[in-house]
Amino acid sequence: MRPIRIAALGGSLRAGSVSTAALRTCAARARRAGAEVTLLCGPELALPPYDPEAGVRSAAELRLLAALRAADGVLLASPTYHGGMSGLLKNALDHTEALAKDTPGYLDGRAVGCLTVAWNEVAGASALASLRASAQALRGWAVPMGVVVSAATEFTAADTCADPRAARRLDILTDQVLDFARMRRSCEAAAVPVGSGVGAAL
C-alpha cells in the first residue's frame, strides 16, 4: 500500500513566518510517520485572483490542484489578518473550485487540519473558525483539533516547536489528520464508503 499523502498549504509571504514554521513542524512529523508531504507555502501559493471565467490555469494553480487531488489529508496554516485567514490562502482555496467536478468533488473524504497564528488569541480563534468553515464548505472533514499558535512562539531550524504546549497541540493535529486518512484508506481497501455505518464505527 502506498504511503499516506498530505498536502500542506501555508498562507504567508512573510520571511520567517511563524505560521510557515508551524506548518513545517507538522509536515516533519507527518514525514516521520511515513507520509509523503507536498508543502506549498508563500510564493508557491501566489496565484492570480480567482476568476471563474479564466480559461488558462497558471503553473502554480496546476501544482496546487495536483497536490490536492493526490492527497489523503490536508494541512492548512495561516497568519491571522484582521480576524480572518490571509487573502493568499483564501484565494488558493477559491481556486479549488476547479475540483468541483472531480469524483469525489472538492476535498470530499479528506481529513483537514487547520492552524492559525496570532498575537491575539480571540482574533486567532476567529481566523481558525473561518479556516475550518472553508474546509468544511469544500466537503473536507475538519479534524477535532484546531490550533491557535502565539505569534511569539519560536521554532528551530530542525522544524521543532520550542513551546511544549504548542508542540503537543501541533502533534495532536497532525496525528488526527494522519489517523483519519489511514481509516479512509482502510475503508477504501475494504470497499466500505466513508461515512457509512461501518466507516462511522471506525
Explain this structure.
With 202 residues, the chain is of the alpha/beta class. It has a single domain (5-201), classed as Rossmann fold (3-Layer(aba) Sandwich), CATH 3.40.50. The chain has six helices and five strands; from the N terminus they run E-H-E-H-E-H-E-H-E-H-H. It has helices spanning 18-32, 59-70, 87-94, 121-137, 164-189, 197-201; strands spanning 5-10, 36-41, 73-79, 111-118, 141-150. A five-stranded parallel sheet has the order 2-1-3-4-5, sandwiched between helices. The longest helix is centred in the last third of the chain and has 26 residues, at 164-189. The radius of gyration is 16 Å and the shape is globular.
Short description:
Helices cover 41% and strands 18% of the residues. It contains six helices and five strands.
Write the layout of secondary structure elements.
Elements: E1 5-10, H1 18-32, E2 36-41, H2 59-70, E3 73-79, H3 87-94, E4 111-118, H4 121-137, E5 141-150, H5 164-189, H6 197-201
Parallel strand pairs: 1-2, 1-3, 3-4, 4-5
Helix pairs in contact: 1-5
Describe the structure using short key phrases.
single chain; 202 residues; alpha/beta; Rossmann fold; five-stranded parallel beta sheet; 6 helices; 18% strand; globular
Distance between termini? 19 Å
Q: How do the strands line up in the largest sheet?
A: 2-1-3-4-5
Let me know the number of strands: 5
Order of helices and strands: EHEHEHEHEHH
Looking at the overall shape, the CATH architecture is 3-Layer(aba) Sandwich
Quote the beta fraction.
15-25%
> Largest sheet, described in full?
5 strands, parallel
Overall CATH class? Alpha Beta
Give the overall average pLDDT: 93
